[in-house]
What does this fold into?
Amino acid sequence: MRDRKILILSIVVMLIVTNIPKLIYPTQDTLWNVYYERQTKETFYHGLIPRYDELSYLGRPMTYLPGYFAAKAMFLWLVGTGYNNFGNWLFETFLNITFIIGLFYLGKKLGLKNIALLIFVFSVISCVFIFTLMAAHLLHVLSLVLLTFALSFSLNKKEGREIISGIMLGAASIVHAFSFIMFPVIYAAFRLGEIKSRKELWKEIESGLITMLAALLILFVFYSPVLENYGKPTEALPEKWGWLLHWDHRYIYSEYFLLAPILIFTSIFGLFYKKLRWLAIFTLIGLLSLFTVTFRVNVIVSFIGALLIAKFFEIRKIKFLILALILINFAFLIFRLGGYVTPCIDGYINNECRFAINELKNMPDAVLEEPLLGHATTFIAEKPVLADLYVEYANEEQLIDAINFEETNNLTIAEKWNITTILTRYSCGNYTQVYDNGYYRICLRNY
Amino acid sequence: MKKLIEYLLVVISIIFIVVIILPHFLNSGLRGFYNPEIKELKLKEWDFLVRNEEVCFSYLYPLKSGAVIFVNGERITETKTRNLCIDVRNSSRIKIMIENRSVSFFVVRKDFNCKKREWKIKLQTPKIVHQYEGFNIEVNITHGECKGRVYELKIYLDGSLLKKIPIKLMPNEEKVIKEKVRINEKGEHTIRVEIGKVSEKRKIVVIPRFELKVPIFGLPFLVFFLFFILKRKNGLEKAFATILTILTLIPLFFSLINIKFFIPSLIVGTLIMVILCGIEKFSS
It folds into this structure.
């Protein structure tokens, strides 16, 4: 009964905090999410994953991992809402509630109770990145939910858990492949402190390998047409959009805010406790990697760090204060969603940008613009763009030219690609300027 | 005290969720409290090639502010008229400026032979399409004027403006325009195109996709969900995990073999859940 109350409380608090931003931005229309939503819309209306994308990079094969598009399209069809704001909100609520349930049961499997369980759940979702996923980038939440269940089922002692866990991990990976990499790291961090003998260690490694093999098989089966037709994934300009991007040490504070000092404190002092040592080591390495190797370990650090904090404080009276700090941190995340003031930077497609992109519907053929607006243009105006933010399997020359245009306003790039319509923040030069909203201008070439 | 807090929490969350849900459910959507006014200046139609006539153009701006007209950088007039003609002696760049926004175009003035002819328009569309299926409409235009002008080709769906595309027409030019259109609502519709002095319309039938407003297809999943959560250990986790995995993988399988996945996934998903319920019942 108490567990149920903790779960309901967690869900209610999460729903309130993730829905408050909707008073300002009612949808999940961010510069990145609209790409996923466009593919989902196509999938929903045609009942098949699209094979070709006519709009991205002036037209190219559809190579994105298809799991989210299928899951959401199927969900919307089952609940009968159609593809609209309400259906989107319903799916978001369903996934976020499922995420809390997944974290709750994972915490219980890890031996946490009551306040410690709440600390774990809210520490995970207090990471700015994870919160922005829950509020504005649902594809990753689906992957995280399935990953959470995979971890949870892996901790079972029942026969056949590896296969069940592997199927869930496979499903998570076909939504977002990074889950496949996160699983062994997080699982190792969770289990190493509990293993008492070498025999037990080898058994865990064996189970983990079976899980990952099952997941790899699923990933391979569903992604094989893409691999067969277009080879292994390539990335345009990996130094700009790739996986090994990082900033300086201040990133820890901007990512975790009030949680940052708690994470640093527990990861250093956790080294002195035998049961917490492995968790502390993984958290420390993760925190250091954030600003030296790649910021993309932030989700891994959130999961492992959350368990470390929960276990460190579970027997201490100060745990209520820690929980209060974490809840304040979580509530404060509302202000971190960005895009409120700066037009079309930091996330949401706000009015200055949306109005200009909307006008592109009334313009001829393809559009030359900065790549950051590519997904928004294909989603709102349904126009082909020279380049956008989906850089895997992308034409690097097109991306370089689009970035060149963004940095120098070199309008002659439109001539190179035979594009008529240009969206710019600057001047149209000698081209006809047909639109100006004070922030963006639309130019037409050969008009 | 604890109960009071619990009740308060429930009431607050219900009120809050209803405030967010209802506008979405009615599809009106919350406009958001941060809603800055965006003033847009748009150039609608303009002459780009004239003989001895005036240069005519039209623009759009939400307020009735005076626009300043520049010709080759020289300020020539201020006007509140949005549809006007001005005299230019040579080829010129015309700029219209209102409240720090501007639009501009270039007009060539030269002598050429031309005889006015009759405007003509012919519209071709498919007769039947599916919901949300993009299709091309073809518009054959004969320009009747003896000047080069950019017109707005307006495309209407059942009387509502769908889009307007700038079309550049040389003097007396015959041009074929192809434009992609997508209709989401099923049933019979009328597409009308309008440019300059002519318009034409065509009827088109949109075949519905298989879709029900009442979510009865979600029922097997709901039954499975209830079966698992009622008095079963970790039933909630098992139910959600299974449903999500089925939702992700089964449609993908059918899409992989090029079969539209809704009905087959429902059948296979339901079968899997029945089997799982059977195993659960048998093992307990």
